[in-house]
Structure formats: structure tokens, C-alpha cells
Amino acid sequence: MIVIVTGMPGSGKSKIVKEFEKRGFPSVSLGDIVREETLKRGLELTKENVAKVSIRLRQELGQNAVAKLAVEKVRALLKGSQVVVIDGVRSLDEVGTFRGAFPEENIIIVAVHTPPRQRFERLKARGRHDDPQTWEDFEERDWKELRFGIGGVIAMADYMLVNNGSREEYEAEVKKLVDEIISKL
Questions:
Q1: Does 149 belong to an annotated binding site?
Q2: Disulfide engineering: 85 pairs with which of 27, 53, 109, 135, CB 3.0-4.6 Å?
Q3: Which residues are recorded as binding ATP?
Q4: What is the CATH number of the domain that holds 176?
């Protein structure tokens, strides 16, 4: 089984990924693949460079570029695990790449929605190098994600979590969701 986790930046995707990992299931982060590719190209890890590489990869390899780069990692992990989680799928082309590469696998899409203001505050607090510090940067990043096609992936989700309450409430919802998905093994 492949579990694709999607949502806008700062929505709470990593909580879902971490819950699967706590239960012994590995994950592949498409964002990490872009960051690795940025370093391979001799560029410093800045939000500008990561964004440029993300766009350049799609120009060079197609809209599903990052998924193509992840397929072999996912394949290797599936040899040792019943479930592999893929974090950060941003387009239906990427979903299609995984469906095409793994036709025998049950592929489940989990989306997380969090209101924009909450996401902005979380991203500012998170402090990763590519996190926006101004509302304008935040909106620009959101539009970039939407242009990649993330809205289509969210719309096609098998499960949708709304993360607009307390941390404890969301963590309880995540555990419940992971329990439900694992019960289908």
C-alpha cells in the first residue's frame, strides 16, 4: 500500500507521516528530493534556489519530475514494508506516475486542510530555510503550489483531515486515521 499525503505548506502533513513512521512504516519526502537535487546542482539551500530547481526539474522532466525521481526509492522501500508513505505530492501527474509505476499497490491519498492564517503562523514558527516570513511570501508560495496542481490532488483525496483545532485534537484525528488505513492491510 502507498499512502500519499498532500496539503498546502504548513497544513500538518508531517504529523501524519510521523505517525506512520512511529508504527514502523517508511516514508519518502518529495520536498527532500528537490532539496537533494538542489544540492546536487551545487546550489545553496535557499527558498529561491529550491523553488528554481523545483520549476527547472518540471521543465526538464515534465510535471511529474519529482515523482519520477522518487519511484525507485519507493520501490526499494516496498520490498521491506507493507506501507510506504509519500509526503508532498503536488500534482495529479505525480499521482499518475505512482499509479503507473505501482499498478499492483493500493494507493490512498490523504489530504490535510488548514486555514491560511494558521498555516502562515505555523510556517513562521517552524523556521525552515524555505518558510515564508511575510504574508506576501506566504501567498506567493501558495500560488506556486496551486499552479503545480496541488488543488487537484487535494480534490481527489480518499481522506481529508481538517486541522483547525488544537494540536491534541489534530493528533487524535491523525492516530484515528492511521488506525483506519492500517486496518485495510
A1: no
A2: 27
A3: 7-14
A4: 3.40.50.300
Known binding residue 132? Answer is no
Please check if 52 is assigned to a binding site: no
- Residues spanned by the domain of 33: 2-182
Annotated binding residue at 13? yes
14 marked as binding residue: yes
CB-based contacts of 164, cutoff 8 Å, min separation 6: 113, 114, 115, 118
pTM: 0.92
Q: With the C-alpha atoms ordered 116, 43, 64, 31, is the resulting torsion angle positive or negative?
A: negative
Quote the number of domains for the chain.
1
Q: Confirm or deny that 152 is annotated as ligand binding.
A: no
